[in-house]
Specification:
This protein has 163 residues and is mainly alpha-helical. 42% of the residues lie in helices and 4% in strands. The chain contains six helices and three strands, in the order E-H-E-H-E-H-H-H-H. It has helices at residues 10-15, 46-55, 86-99, 115-127, 131-144, 150-161, and strands at residues 7-8, 25-26, 60-62. Strands 1-3-2 form a three-stranded antiparallel sheet. Helix 3 runs antiparallel to helix 4 and helix 4 (115-127) runs antiparallel to helix 5. It starts with 6 loop residues before the first strand and ends with a helix.
Length: 163
């Protein structure tokens, strides 16, 4: 598992780009949101939205144990092809765009850019040979974070070459 402290706050969670298994994190019952935001039902990654919302009301507990058992079935989002590729990354864009309204302003910096989502979406469209969509998301990627370390572009072009 991960080597994280047993208790941390939302900023630590976001800063470390930490996405733990759902059964390894703990929130107080009082942290449960009274209402879900309108975009909640639009995304398959609703559990991540809940983590963010709950963490605004208190610290997060973490247990470094993988006690989860997986059931594979046709409606499961974790293993289904219905939630891969473009859908997964468009979900992240939707979350990044909408979650800021529910978080303290000091945390908005973690949701400013979507260049990683645009990068992966562009690669999916290239693999599907949809060149117009590839170019569109490639442009969004570059415009979303035009100044990137050379290594990041080198990695991206390696991914392009190996599609």
């Amino acid at each position: 598992m991960y080597d994280f402290p047993p208790i941390f706050n939302l900023e630590f969670y976001l800063q470390n780009f930490f996405n733990p298994l759902n059964n390894s994190i703990i929130f107080l019952k009082s942290a449960e949101p009274e209402n879900h935001p309108p975009f909640f039902s639009e995304v398959a990654q609703w559990d991540t939205v809940l983590h963010y919302l709950r963490a605004t009301k208190g610290d997060i507990g973490y247990v470094s144990v993988d006690g989860q058992a997986w059931r594979r079935h046709s409606n499961a989002t974790s293993f289904s092809t219905a939630f891969t590729g473009v859908k997964r990354y468009k979900d992240w864009i939707t979350i990044n765009k909408n979650i800021k309204a529910y978080l303290p302003k000091s945390l908005h910096k973690y949701f400013r850019t979507n260049f990683i989502a645009y990068e992966y979406i562009s690669l999916v469209y290239l693999k599907k040979k949809k060149i117009g969509m590839f170019l569109y998301y490639f442009a969004l990627m570059v415009l979303n974070r035009p100044v990137r370390p050379l290594k990041e572009y080198k990695d991206y072009f390696w991914k392009l070459r190996n599609q």
